[in-house]
Amino acid sequence: MYFNIQIDAIPQGRPRFYNKVAVDPPKSRKFKEDLATLLKLQLFEPALHGAIAVTIHIHRNFINPTNRNYGDIDNLAKGILDACNGILWKDDSQIVQLEVVKRVTDSKPYLEIWAFAKE
């Protein structure tokens, strides 16, 4: 499966705890909801089962490309993987191979996601 999603990746924020319940920060929650909606619009195949391999290319646009506050690659990937749960795969624990690439682009930000069954 291949997806090209026109959305800017938002790093997964630290959860806040209210009455011992973890709650995503509003920006992280909205990003995951928006990404899940966009994925569902492009999904023509059922979710993958078993072991899977995933490649993610994160293309972000920055006003000042020398600024190193791009978001940590692991926090960017975490939000993307969480948004894909229950859509592209049942749970991200199925992922046995993961490649994540972060790039600066002059165009609008977007994500590319490849997911396939691993034999």
Report what the structure shows.
The chain has 119 residues and is an alpha+beta fold. The protein has a single domain, classed as 60s Ribosomal Protein L30, Chain: A. It contains 2 helices and 6 strands, in the order βββαβαββ. Strand 4 (52-60), helix 2 (73-84) and strand 5 form a beta-alpha-beta unit. The radius of gyration is 15 Å and the shape is globular. The mean pLDDT is 87.
Question: Strand percentage, roughly?
Answer: 25-35%
Task: Catalogue the unreliable spans.
Answer: none
CATH superfamily: Holliday junction resolvase RusA
CATH topology: 60s Ribosomal Protein L30, Chain: A
Oligomer: single chain
**Can you tell me the CATH class?**
Alpha Beta
Main sheet strand line-up: 1-6-4-5
Provide the gyration radius in Å. 15 Å
Major pleated sheet:
4 strands, mixed
